[in-house]
Amino acid sequence: MPQYCGSCWAHAATSALSDRIKIARDGAWPDVNISPQVVISCETVDDGCHGGEPVNAFSFMHFNEVTDETCSIYTARGYDNGHECSPMTVCKTCDPHEPCYIPDEYHTYQVDEFAHFQGEKEMMQEIYQRGPIACGIAVTQQMEDYTGGIFEDKTADLEVTHEISIVGFGVEDSVPYWVIRNSWGQHWGEDGFMRLVRGKNNLAIESDCAWATPVDTWTNKQMHQTTDAERNDPKNDAHNGPWPVDPVEPAPGFLKKTSKAGCRRASETHFP
């Protein structure tokens, strides 16, 4: 990461949607990896680098076009700390020794249906039928220290402070588990993944999930046509170099977190 950004919610949502696009495209090359940066910078229901929820990201992607990471790479900055939304945030490219610019046209993607849900059986059915989902999870020190195997938390912590995607499930030695993909990097866990005991709502994993289905924008190659207004938007940053041009001081305490969690926005409880 370029710097700390509490954007797990956007990564969980976009990675799950990217997987579903890959499934819908029968694994066709090249992969489509939806850009979390567009969501972090442009979706303002949540709090950018200060936390959010996947269902809000899905809602944003339902009503707005988003792009993939070839158009908008992750910068670990949000709309209020160095990377505000602009047409160039959605898609830009750069040539050597020249200002960056928006391509004349580029691929876009959107969400069709989306919803909150919960429960082990419902989660298994959704994953089996349509692919990965995004879920909230509590984080303990033991989870942060996880290196491998089927993990079961013994602290009874059910306070959701983090968001991940669940990409599958299985059973080993009669122990059922979830296959979780985290956003902390391959140095953590099992190459960035974790197996968590299933069916016990361990770490609140079965209490707050969301799914979304992608709109088919690839069969007929739905392309966004760039307008003059988008090219000339004063918020565009055409600087061709390190991002950001002038480092922005984070909000007080922004970089003082000792935990990798804390990227789930505090909000109402979705399920009683």
The fourth-level CATH homologous superfamily of the largest domain is: Cysteine proteinases
Radius of gyration, in angstroms, nearest whole number: 19 Å
Q: Measure the end-to-end span.
A: 35 Å
Tally of DSSP β-strands: 9
Number of structural units classed as domains:
2
Q: Could you name the CATH topology of the largest domain?
A: Cathepsin B, Chain A
Largest sheet, in brief, is: 7 strands, mixed
Shape: globular
Strand order of the largest sheet: 2-8-3-5-6-7-4
Question: Could you spell the SSE succession in H and E letters?
Answer: HHHHEEHEHEEEEEEH
The residue-averaged pLDDT reads 91
Task: Decide which structural class fits the backbone.
Answer: alpha+beta
Count of helix runs: 7
> What percentage of the residues does DSSP assign to strands (E)?
15-25%
Query: What CATH first level of the largest domain would be assigned?
Result: Alpha Beta
| Percentage of residues in helical conformation | 10-25%
CATH architecture assignment name of the largest domain: Alpha-Beta Complex
Low-confidence stretches: 247-258, 268-272
What can you see in these coordinates?
The protein has 272 residues and is of the alpha+beta class. The protein has two domains: 1-117 and 213-248, Cysteine proteinases (Cathepsin B, Chain A), CATH 3.90.70.10; 119-207, Cathepsin B, Chain A (Alpha-Beta Complex). It has helices spanning 8-24, 36-42, 54-63, 87-90, 120-130, 141-144, 228-231, and strands at 105-107, 111-117, 133-138, 150-151, 160-172, 175-181, 193-197, 209-214, 223-225. The strands form two sheets. The chain has a seven-stranded mixed β-sheet with strand order 2-8-3-5-6-7-4, sandwiched between helices. A two-stranded antiparallel ribbon has the order 1-9. A hairpin with a 2-residue loop joins strand 5 (160-172) and strand 6 (175-181). Helix 1 (8-24) packs across helix 2 and helix 1 (8-24) crosses helix 3 (54-63).
